[in-house]
Amino acid sequence: MAESSSSVASATPEAVAVAPALRKGLLAKIGFPLAVAAAYGIHAAVSKQEPELETRNYTIFLAGLGGLGLLAGALQLFLGGFRRWMQEMWPILSAAVLVFGVLEIVTTGVRLLPLPYFPSPPKILQSAIQDRVLIWESTYHSLFLLMRGYLLGVVMGVVTGVCIGWFKTARYWGMPVMKVVGPIPATAWIPLALIISPSATLSAIGLIAIAVWFPVTMLTASGIANTRSSYLDVAKTLGAKPSYLIFRVAIPAAMPNIFLGLFMGLGAAFLTLVVAETVGVKSGLGWYLGWSREWAEYGKVFAALGIMAIFFSTIMTGLFALRDRVLVWQKGTIKW
Questions:
Q1: Which of 164, 184, 183 is nearest to 172 (CA)?
Q2: For residue 286, what are the contacts with CB-CB under 8 A and spacing of at least 6?
Q3: CA angle 122, 75, 315 (to 5 degrees)
Q4: Is the pLDDT of residue 305 over 70?
Q5: pLDDT band for position 202 (cuts 50, 70, 90)
Q6: What fold does the segment set 131-330 form as a domain?
Q7: Domain ranges of the chain
Q8: Is the pTM of this model over 0.90?
Q9: Calpha distance 289→101 (Å, rounded)
Q10: Got the DSSP string for 15-42?
Q11: Residue 319: left (phi > 0), alpha (psi -120 to 50), or beta?
Q12: 13-29 pLDDT tens trace
C-alpha cells in the first residue's frame, strides 16, 4: 500500500506537467472544427424556411471552414510552427465562427433585429456571391488608390520629418505650418480639392497623402530630434560626415517612431479613402458601400463592410510584418 502511494506521488508532478500540454494541443486540433459544427447546427435549426440557394451556399461555406479546420488539425502533427500558431489562435477563430451562429439566431431565428436593415449571415454571403465581380473591381480600385496616396504621403512625411527634426531652420519655419495645417482633417479639404484637381482620382490621392503626411512628419521629426547624442558624438569622433549622421545614425535610431507614424498614417488613409470614394470617386469599396445603401441593399452593405475589414486588416498585418523585419534588432523590446 505504501509502495503504491509513493509511486502515485512520484508520478503526480509529471502528470500535472503533461496534462495541460496535452489538453492544449487537443483543443488546438479540434476546437475550431467543433465551433464550425456548432454554427452548422444552428444554421440547420433556424434556416428551414429560408431560400434554398442561400441555405446551400452558406452550408458549402461552413463545410469549407470545417474542412480547413480538419486540415489544420492534421498539419499540426507535422509542422511545429503552425501548431504553436494554432494553439494561440484557435480561440479567436472559433469565437469568430460562433459569432456567425449567434447572428443567425438573432436575425433568422428570433427576429430581434428589423429587416432588411440587419440581414442574416447567409443573406450577406449570397449578396457577396451575386456581386462578386463588382466587389472585386471595387477592391482593386480601392487598393490602387490607397497605395498611391499612402506611398506619396509617406515619402513627403519622411522627407519633411527628417528636415524638421535635423535642421534648425527647417524646424523654425516648419513647425508653425505643421501646427496650423496639420490638425485640419484631410476630409475637410474635399471641396477645395475637387475644385483645384482636374480629376476626382487625383484629388483623392492628394487627400490620402495629406492624411498620411501629418502623423508621419510629426513622429519622424520627433524621432530624429531625440536621437541620442552619444550616438552622434561617437560617429563624429570617427570622422562621420553630416550625410552619414543623417542616413546611418539618426534615421535608423528614429525607425521605431517612423513606423509608429506609418501605422497612424495608415489608419488615417483608410478613413480618407472611404470618405473620398463616397463623395468624389465613383469607384472603390467606399463608393460601392454608398451605392448599396442608396438602393437599400443592406446585404451588400454588410458584405462590403466585411470585405473592408479583411482588406484593411491584411494591409495592416503586412505593415506589422515589415516592421518586424526592419526592426529585427529590437526584437523582444517592441510592445506594439
A1: 164
A2: 142, 273, 274, 275, 276, 277, 278
A3: 55
A4: yes
A5: confident
A6: MetI-like fold (1.10.3720)
A7: 2-116, 131-330
A8: no
A9: 25
A10: HHHHHHHHHHHHHHHHHHHHHHHHHHHH
A11: alpha
A12: 554 445 666 677 777 78
